[in-house]
Design a protein that fits this description.
heterodimer; A: alpha/beta; 8-stranded mixed β-sheet; 11 helices; about 50% helix; B: alpha/beta; Four Helix Bundle (Hemerythrin (Met), subunit A); Rossmann fold; 434 Repressor (Amino-terminal Domain); 3 domains; 20 helices; globular; disordered C terminus; GTP binding (chain A); P-loop_NTPase (chain A)
Chain lengths: ~300, ~450
Amino acid sequence: MALGSFFSKLKQGLSRSTQKLSESIGAVFTRRKLDEDALAELEDLLIAADLGTAVAARVIASFRRSRFGKEVTDQEIRQALAEEIADILRPAARPLAIDPTLKPHVVLVVGVNGTGKTTTIGKLAQQYREQSLRPMLVAGDTFRAAAVEQLQVWGQRTDATVVTAPPNSDAAGLAFDGLTRARAEGADVLLIDTAGRLHNKAALMEELRKIIRVLRKQDPAAPHSVLLVLDATTGQNALQQVNVFKEMVDVTGLVVTKLDGSARGGIVVALAEEFGLPVHAVGVGEQAGDLRPFDPDEFARGLVGT
Amino acid sequence: MFEALSGKLTGVFERLRRRGALNETDVMEALREVRLALLDADVALPVVKDFIAKVRERAVGQEVLDSVSPGQQVVKIVNDVMVEALGGAGAVGLNLNAPAPIPILMVGLQGSGKTTTSGKIALRLSQRLRRKVLLASLDTQRPAAQLQLQQLAERAGVGSLPIVAGQTPLQIAARAMETARREVYDVVILDTAGRLSIDAALMEEVKQIRFATNPAETLLVVDAMTGQDAVNTAKAFNDAVGVTGIVMTRMDGDARGGAALSMRAVTGAPIKLTGSGEKLDALEDFHPERVAGRILGMGDVVGLVERAAETIDQAEAEKLARKMAKGTFDLEDFAAQLKQITKMGSLSSILGMLPGAAKLQQQIGDANLDQKMLRRQAAIISSMTAKERRTPDIIKASRKKRIAAGSGTTVQDVNRLLKQFDDMSGMMKRMNKLGQKGLMRHGLSALMPGGRRPF
């Protein structure tokens, strides 16, 4: 995949989401100098991008210190804002590194309902295939109707084995069987899908912990990665989601999906600031190739429209 | 569902309540807090601005009476505006005033819960209204989506359109309507693929489907966790297909649910239904006045009573109430009550309906207290002798050991249950003293030991 096409695709996804934000910034800052009113409006714009009131206030506070009362051009404001946001995001940009010596590197994929866990697993499997790694998939969502079949389609597309169990069977037992099989067949990566669950359902969260406990009977270091898949349209509740999942199952990284929509994904900035968890990848479409590494500068520039 | 927002606003108004007469500065300060609370609750910025402007307009224009608490006055205005913004009093049902087969079109973003909601609506229409429902999936995008709807149809006991590979969504829609006419279905639910509001090609496709089928209802399905983007999505879908109703899903989560306000404001379409769980019967009518009450920390008492009325054995409840009044409530009754509560649903969802219980609910969530725990407690009580249940005071060390062994729990569990029962009896005594009126006025906090506010 050429680098150019990657940027254009990401930009295409991000540009629409940020069009309004950048238009509004342009409207605000070509007209006047950076006074209290302008700062308040800028803060509103950040809030409207889902950064949240606290993070928006912090960014604005920094602006007030350095640029208050100055005559600023539209371009300067955008650059400064992008830098400010990129600074927050930069520590989070760490790709998911698969350790080929683990055989398999076990990746548990978790999240609330409808964020795109299964699709993300399909895309990851495709990427590992292209890297000449052997992925194996575990259809751990034994609850939702046709979730297994959905993953099986991805298995066929990526020529990866999909370990399944009958509906409503124990996901932990299935994960255990999956790991046994992956070890026996020498798979490089074991991607374990799980049923979507709301983080405030204690019993369902306990089920996830059980999956981990059972995996550790075979490999005390498993799962080597726990990915939380987050929907970019999610608002401030994402903070609570990450908080609870992190506490319950020790999330090691995030994948942010649906960034090709009109949602601006500003919550990622709040998440980076609050938790410092790596953002391993972003999803910008439904096709196998639409999972991209997270580039903080690109993301920040896209957000403010430079 | 709106606990966090309730909590914040409760805090703001508590402060107002404690003061004497309100001046304009106070109102402005309170409204700033309301603004922040609404934003943190994911109500979209333009909607928040309108909301605040409306409240200010009404609050400032109104004469402040010395006799009533000024805080209460503002609370009432905020509440009124909130109810209006959510659609006014009363629930709005699905519009089924059309010649059969009545098409219902489901639209929304990916992962908002369209397919599950389709199954839920099918179950509701077939069970409550005895309609013959056909489910048809037009989702040719996501792998196995059609199969998912077919399986849901089986669970709901309704018809589903046979899957024909290779057809376009428009062709499937036509086939669904044709099948429904031929096989005399009352309602056809057309579940479409999730699409982004900015995806021109897919939006054009859903427009064509809408044009071809002329649905009686075009329902926009929205995740309650949605952030500021709610306005963009709502606007795009409304412009393209003319949304007639909104379904908010995942109301059983702890998202603050501000998207409900945003969606309603942008589309002008009523929120008709809410989804609050993965089971097919977890679909409820949306009552603006109740949800507004919850947002403002006043609780959804009506909802609680309704839920209770549906599930609780009336005779049994009256017997319990008499015993409570007399103060002769024993462990036997406690067990009966646990059983009733288990029937009503998870404890945390019940607590969410009580005034001022939002924080308590969170604590309970943290403490992992739920169905499992209720079952365990029931087991402990079942392991007691009849005498022990009537006079729990006689349960000492060796009895505790026996009970723990019998119920597969530990002595600590037994102790915890006895302590809880003790607290509860104490609570009942206070409740009797306070009377119903006191409970409504002070909320749960009046029941706490020492009358102290626990939150």
